[in-house]
């Protein structure tokens, strides 16, 4: 067993202490409205990165810069950054009016009382087809925000519903990076992992839908919306949603939406060309904080990994959890802690894979169950992480609609990750293993 260094995890402890400490102070002690929203998350990560740079005296600052460069250059980080930037362009092109038109159109064909239920179902389908929670949240959150404004449903409920549906597909999709990473790392066929996973996620999704329906029926919403909407402005969103549902690559889907949006905006005279370019730039600028957090987290994780922080985390989990059932929980907590440290569920799975495979062999846990546990728990933790890419993208998308929303208000309404955790524990400890499991 490789030797780890617990002190290497100090930068993440500093981040959590500052982020939560300032947020709680602003929100509950100083009574500042949207207190958590006022915490400068980029600055907090910079402080944490400084702490990491001051550690590990064996390396020069130049060597640490090289490590950070390798971390930022990871395929998953580059993919996320490109999605963020293209999403910013898309939002800048179609604007707030298009999302509102989609919302009014949806409310005209679906009873307003069931609009949030439809949001969850659509998010589940799109994320499963596309395999990306970030892409799904980017596309559907503006619609969710518009539905909240036009129908009177709680904004945290609408956004939390979309995020829950997005994590459904992130966990289950055959083309999701998390599925690929978990199955490859455990030597498990995707179809076997899917069968194990589906049995766990289906009850969670059904219970979530019931909870949303109950809250929708009890909500004091506005009378049916009759405001006119522009059908032609719906086309870009309809195309990207169709692309998502049929499983077209997220980059191609966003590109289709951008091109279509540009043609429609220019052809209808809604904007002129200079204004359109300015809107694109504004949309990209709106993704600054989200992109910077992804870059800083990648750099921070590279330093923590080199200093032995992740290895200490892995070793601790392995020592504490022993036996088949406890081993499964240990694997789940292992990848969860790695996700808290990296703020990226795919990276967390890749980091946890080797130790998880050893634990699975030692405690008699089948590869498909190990892969399912890694994927499921990584998505549970990532879904409710206040500084995760999914949450930041959702809050940014809400901000483009001229609204403000705090991460913890959304987390309180993310029923799907909570139900998924409950379902996972029930299947882990109460449902007997199949005889075919080793």
Characteristics:
0% strand, mainly alpha, globular, 20 helices, 438 residues
Task: Write up what this structure looks like.
The protein is mostly helical and 438 residues long. The chain has one domain. Helices cover 77% and strands 0% of the residues. The protein has 20 helices and no strands. The protein has helices spanning 10-29, 41-54, 61-72, 75-109, 115-130, 133-151, 155-172, 177-186, 190-218, 231-246, 250-267, 273-285, 288-307, 309-320, 324-342, 345-363, 367-383, 389-400, 407-411, 415-429. Helix 8 (177-186) runs antiparallel to helix 17 (367-383). The model has no long low-confidence stretch (mean pLDDT 83).
Order of helices and strands: HHHHHHHHHHHHHHHHHHHH
Q: Give unreliable regions as ranges.
A: none
First-residue to last-residue Cα separation: 25 Å
Any idea what the shape is? globular
Beta-strand residue fraction: under 5%
The helix content, as a percent range, equals: over 70%
Largest sheet: none
What is the number of beta strands?
0
- Strand-pairing-aware structural class: mainly alpha
- Average pLDDT across residues? 83
List the domain count as a whole number. 1
Instruction: Compute the CA-based radius of gyration.
Output: 22 Å
Number of helical segments with 4 or more residues: 20
How would you classify the quaternary structure?
single chain
Write the layout of secondary structure elements.
Blueprint: H1 10-29, H2 41-54, H3 61-72, H4 75-109, H5 115-130, H6 133-151, H7 155-172, H8 177-186, H9 190-218, H10 231-246, H11 250-267, H12 273-285, H13 288-307, H14 309-320, H15 324-342, H16 345-363, H17 367-383, H18 389-400, H19 407-411, H20 415-429
């Amino acid at each position: 067993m490789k030797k780890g260094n617990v002190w290497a995890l100090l930068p993440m402890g500093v981040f959590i202490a500052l982020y939560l400490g300032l947020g709680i102070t602003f929100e509950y002690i100083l009574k500042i409205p949207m207190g958590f929203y006022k915490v400068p998350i980029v600055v907090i990560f910079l402080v944490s990165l400084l702490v990491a740079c001051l550690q590990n005296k064996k390396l020069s600052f130049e060597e640490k810069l090289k490590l950070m460069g390798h971390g930022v250059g990871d395929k998953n980080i580059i993919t996320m950054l490109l999605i963020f930037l293209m999403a910013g362009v898309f939002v800048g092109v179609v604007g707030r009016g298009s999302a509102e038109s989609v919302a009014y159109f949806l409310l005209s064909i679906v009873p307003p009382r069931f609009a949030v239920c439809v949001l969850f179902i659509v998010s589940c389908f799109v994320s499963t087809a596309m395999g990306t929670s970030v892409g799904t949240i980017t596309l559907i959150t503006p619609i969710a925000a518009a539905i909240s404004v036009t129908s009177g449903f709680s904004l945290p409920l609408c956004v939390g519903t979309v995020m829950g549906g997005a994590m459904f597909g992130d966990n289950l999709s055959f083309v999701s990076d998390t599925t690929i990473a978990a199955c490859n790392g455990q030597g498990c066929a995707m179809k076997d992992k899917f069968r194990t996973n589906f049995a766990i996620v289906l009850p969670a999704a059904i219970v979530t839908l019931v909870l949303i329906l109950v809250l929708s029926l009890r909500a004091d919403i506005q009378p049916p919306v009759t405001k006119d909407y522009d059908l032609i402005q719906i086309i870009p969103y309809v195309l990207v949603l169709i692309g998502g549902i049929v499983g077209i690559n997220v980059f191609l889907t966003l590109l289709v939406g951008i091109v279509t949006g540009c043609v429609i905006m220019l052809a209808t005279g809604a904007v002129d060309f200079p204004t359109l370019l300015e809107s694109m730039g504004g949309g990209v600028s709106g993704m600054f904080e989200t992109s910077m957090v992804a870059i800083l987290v990648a750099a921070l994780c590279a330093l923590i990994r080199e200093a032995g922080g992740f290895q200490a985390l892995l070793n601790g989990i392995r020592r504490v959890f022993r036996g088949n059932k406890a081993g499964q929980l240990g694997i789940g907590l292992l990848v969860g802690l790695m996700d808290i440290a990296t703020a990226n569920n795919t990276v967390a799975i890749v980091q946890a894979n080797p130790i998880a495979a050893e634990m699975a062999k030692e405690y008699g846990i089948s590869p498909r169950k190990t892969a399912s546990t890694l994927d499921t728990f990584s998505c549970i933790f990532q879904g409710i992480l206040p500084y995760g890419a999914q949450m930041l993208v959702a809050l940014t998308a809400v901000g483009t609609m001229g609204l403000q929303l705090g991460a913890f208000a959304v987390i309180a309404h993310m029923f799907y990750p909570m139900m998924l955790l409950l379902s996972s524990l029930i299947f882990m400890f109460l449902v007997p293993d199949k005889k075919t499991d080793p």
